[in-house]
Design a protein that fits this description.
Chain lengths: 361, 277
């Protein structure tokens, strides 16, 4: 259990600023997921917390005590790596007990802790095996076991499931969530997998170019993204964006014109910030687009791809005004490539973003 | 089906080729070994036949009446200590070069590599003067110093290559576990490059064991002679008795061959490391 506080954290490699003024609070027992595109700095942030990288400025506190000057092993943190990083020449038992042996704990205490962890992770039968004789999922469990035996205040996971096949990934995802509940531990998890982030997190931290874009519960981020980047990044397939232009204003709404000359009125709290002629974008989730039904606004276009997943179908279309749109439909929707279709949406389901990407509604 | 047959045929062809190659390579060694058991008249009378009986007389002559045991001991000391020193220093140098980023890293690596290109024999005169000043002429320690310096570039080259391939996450993981840098090197990284250590060991040990040139220049006293050097004096002395000569040569080759056979699995593992995932 640990309360983590990160203040004004900066990290640069030479002239390249990788982490820029990160401020973040993580509560006791929280499962926090860092997401962001490749190279956004999420793994670097994790390594800064772990102590494997030195920070350029700022500080990190665990339970009120600064830990950023301590070596990794003194921070009370354990880390699970993407490649598991098991020592290939040591048995599962030796792998799990290595940190305790380095810390010169008594043999009896080591044995007890390793066996307890092995039981929690169903590894008891495998303790004498070498990592090469284990399957991917078992290796992953050993890596987690190695973290558990140290009884850390904080667990760090660096894309731990990305080397597993799809089925095993789902299984391990559920096991990790169970483990979090069982251990009552604070965990930070780095991933670029949307589903992992949405399903496992108590709190998601979206990072872009070393800056935190938004912090919040998964559904909060999904339903109320702070900007166009978060809106586009959270959700799969990602949100559709359609260009619009402000053509009129009233007390609490903006009148917008789509490229196909349809006009819509969108409620807006700060109408004065926007001028007539401003270019904006509206965002609509694929599942909020409605096929062949009269709505507040319609878009016509030609289907160029259909992805059938059995229980659902994703239809990709080019609109007449040259936007690319994806919509979610039932699994048996009779649509094929080349079809001309018409999709509509309700104004209430729209997000509105200013030209700088900030959310307007 | 046709492809399978063709593949089978190709495999057979390859096996035959490799078999012939092995025979060509091994036959002289085999001839040397069996001739050690023959008398002079047998060697000249039936040079390609097996010995009529398992006769250890030649080996007994070598062991009891010549200085070969002494040479064998000297060669073992020189080769053994040189290889131990080489692997210890080479590993430390290679580890620093492969695993740490620091200013001048590449320069130092290139400096080591330049040693691969310059034959030490060219520097024999300054080397002789230097060793003379150090009082290391006619001493095994002098030879050990030369061999260690001579083979260090190759050792650093081999080990750096292997150490670079190890994933850095292993180091990070050990650091998280609280291991010191020295401990990470000794307990985590070195066991993983043991095939490379075997390669470096054998690759450097064989030329040191067989070397004739440096002992010829630096060793004068009969009691410090090494095997290769000792056997030459033996040539003139026993040129008439080829049986004894072959027995001596067999004894000289035996330690290296034995070490190679014992370590061959690791040697091959090292040679093919990285070939498949």
């Amino acid at each position: 259990m640990a309360h983590i506080q990160i203040n004004n954290l900066h990290k640069q490699f030479g002239d390249v600023k990788v982490i820029r003024d990160v401020n973040l609070t993580i509560d006791d027992n929280e499962f926090v997921v860092f997401v962001g595109p490749s190279g956004c700095g999420k793994s670097t942030l994790l390594r800064l917390i772990s102590g494997l990288e030195d920070l350029s400025s700022g500080h990190i506190k665990i339970d009120g005590e600064r830990i950023d000057h301590l070596p990794p092993s003194k921070r009370g943190i354990a880390m699970v790596f993407q490649s598991y990083a098991l020592y290939p020449h040591m048995s599962v038992y030796q792998n799990m007990s290595y940190a305790l042996r380095v810390a010169k704990e008594s043999k009896a205490s080591i044995d007890k802790k390793v066996k307890q962890a092995a039981e929690v992770l169903q590894l008891t039968e495998l303790l004498d095996r070498k990592p090469k004789a284990l399957s991917g999922g078992q290796r992953q469990r050993v890596a987690i076991g190695r973290a558990i035996v140290r009884d850390p205040k904080l667990f760090l996971f660096d894309e731990p499931l990305s080397n597993l096949d799809a089925k095993l990934r789902v299984q391990m995802r559920i096991e990790l969530t169970k483990l979090h509940k069982k251990l009552n531990a604070t965990m930070i998890y780095v991933t670029h997998d949307q589903v992992e982030a949405m399903t496992m997190a108590d709190k998601i931290v979206v990072i872009r170019d070393g800056i935190i874009e938004q912090v919040g519960a998964p559904l909060e981020l999904y339903n109320h993204p702070a900007n166009q980047f978060v809106a586009g990044f959270i959700g799969s397939p990602s949100m559709n964006f359609i260009d619009v232009k402000v053509i009129g204003k009233s007390d609490a709404s903006l009148e917008l014109e789509l490229k196909n000359k349809t006009n819509i009125h969108i409620p807006c709290a700060e109408v004065d910030l926007h001028a007539i002629g401003d270019k904006m974008q509206i965002g609509i989730r694929p599942e909020k687009l409605i096929l062949d039904e009269a709505c507040d606004a319609m878009q016509d276009g030609e289907v160029f791809a259909v992805e059938r997943l059995g229980n659902e179908t994703y239809i990709y279309m080019h609109t007449a005004t040259n936007n690319e749109i994806v919509l979610h439909a039932a699994g048996d929707k009779p649509v094929t490539e080349g079809d001309h279709i018409s999709v509509g949406f309700k104004v209430a389901d729209c997000h509105l973003f200013a030209s700088n990407g900030e959310v307007v509604k | 089906m046709q492809t399978k047959k063709k593949a089978n045929f190709n495999t057979w062809l390859m096996q035959i080729f490799l078999g012939c190659n092995a025979v060509i390579m091994l036959y002289p060694i085999f001839m040397m070994a069996i001739s050690g058991f023959k008398t002079n008249s047998e060697i000249f009378g039936k040079p390609f036949s097996l010995p009529s009986s398992l006769n250890f007389d030649n080996f007994l002559v070598i062991w009891n009446t010549t200085d070969v045991p002494r040479y064998l001991l000297n060669s073992t000391i020189v080769t053994g200590l040189s290889v131990v020193l080489l692997l210890t220093m080479g590993t430390m140098a290679a580890y620093a070069l492969a695993r740490y980023k620091f200013r001048g890293n590449i320069m130092i690596y290139l400096f080591f590599l330049s040693g691969l290109m310059l034959p030490l024999r060219l520097a024999i005169i300054p080397l002789f003067i230097q060793l003379k000043y150090l009082g290391l002429i006619d001493s095994l320690l002098g030879l050990i110093c030369i061999y260690t310096a001579m083979s260090l570039p190759a050792t650093v080259f081999i080990l750096t290559g292997f150490l670079k391939t190890l994933p850095s996450e292993l180091e990070d993981s050990a650091r998280m576990d609280g291991a010191s840098e020295a401990r990470i090197m000794v307990q985590i990284m070195l066991p993983l490059i043991s095939p490379a250590l075997v390669i470096a060991g054998i690759y450097t040990a064989v030329p040191i064991w067989n070397d004739f040139f440096f002992p010829l220049i630096f060793i004068q006293s009969p009691e410090w002679k090494t095997l290769a050097q000792g056997l030459t004096s033996f040539f003139g002395e026993y040129s008439i008795n080829y049986g004894v000569l072959y027995a001596g040569l067999t004894l000289a080759a035996l330690p290296v061959v034995t070490i190679f056979i014992i370590q061959s699995n690791r040697f091959i593992a090292g040679m093919t490391a990285g070939a498949i995932k």
